[in-house]
């Protein structure tokens, strides 16, 4: 069994990692951290795990973590992640970082959208953890930067069109909606029930920090700089992301033709499912699973293609994608421990 640790295990992505890794046949969780819950059994914080694990939360102590585990998931807020990742790597561990700290290749871009970076030297070597696009780099990496939730849904939704040169990249508009768990488990007024329930709002308009991450991936796929308009929205549901992407086609293509292209593109990808013509995805079709579902329509009236993609933000948008990356880094079967079907309805 491979020994793994979860740093930041008391958060929303942390508990999803616990749920997945407790059932993973090739790994054993040997260390979980939380500053606020240090000394408490995990089942006292998450009663859903009662009877399934005797683990007790430890404080964040790099030496302790590295002495107990070889693979570490850092499920910490950005900035807190880069305070521990370099020392974990120095201690010989492999790291899958769920934060944004190692996703952007250009330190100046990171510093423009986040804060000063304290381990710029690791940006070049970190593999961007979207297996469907960067599988080989992930297999070789000791540090994987797990993508953001919105960027995962958008990159998978647009990759076939962008790589095929089928759209005018300057026309891209992306409109995404996320469930409230995307904001994490720490107390914030904006995440309170009365603030979110029965409401629906846009936020981060023309300023959300996932914009440069999406532009970086689409730029790599097209070989050209890409600028997008990206607007996230907050949905009054616990989990799920739906991204609607609009772009002008450079030539006429019927919906059926584009769906055939997507089906071919993703034919060997076990976690990407393309809907047949006339059917579009719903966040409920992927909830609780590692799937990304994609549907699209070519609008001959406007010459635009409209792509709709859905993921579970806590799973393909975070924890299950992190486990998919770990499997690749360790040479395990890529879908090991990730075969759960979505929870429908
Ligand atoms: N929620 C989502 O849908 C997604 C989240 N992510 C990213 O994954 C990471 C974790 O997200 P999420 O689980 O939602 O966050 P939460 O706020 O739910 O959990 C954060 C965890 O980190 C610990 N923590 C917080 N601050 C620090 C610190 N300064 N030093 C050490 N530990 C700290 C917390 O425990 P304690 O305070 O007790 O130490 C807790 O265990 C973030 O970077 C987030 O952006 C990525 C994709 C999707
Ligand atoms: C609903 C909501 O608040 N979502 C978060 C995105 C969460 C996430 O995955 O982002 P990082 O991993 O890049 O932090 C937000 O908009 O900041």
How would you describe this protein?
It is built from eleven helices and 14 strands. With 345 residues, the protein is an alpha/beta fold. The protein has two domains: 157 residues, NAD(P)-binding Rossmann-like Domain (Rossmann fold), CATH 3.40.50.720; 162 residues, Dihydrodipicolinate Reductase, domain 2, CATH 3.30.360.10. Helix 2 links the parallel strand 2 and strand 3. The two termini are 35 Å apart. 46% of the residues are buried. N-acetyl-L-glutamyl 5-phosphate binds next to strand 10.
Q: Cofactors and ligands present?
A: NADPH dihydro-nicotinamide-adenine-dinucleotide phosphate, N-acetyl-L-glutamyl 5-phosphate
CA distance, first residue to last residue: 35 Å
Q: What is the strand content?
A: 15-25%
Based on CA atoms alone, the radius of gyration comes out at: 20 Å
Biggest sheet, in brief? 7 strands, parallel
Keywords: Amino-acid biosynthesis, Arginine biosynthesis, Cytoplasm, NADP, Oxidoreductase
GO biological process, one term: L-arginine biosynthetic process
Organism: Syntrophotalea acetylenivorans
Protein name: N-acetyl-gamma-glutamyl-phosphate reductase
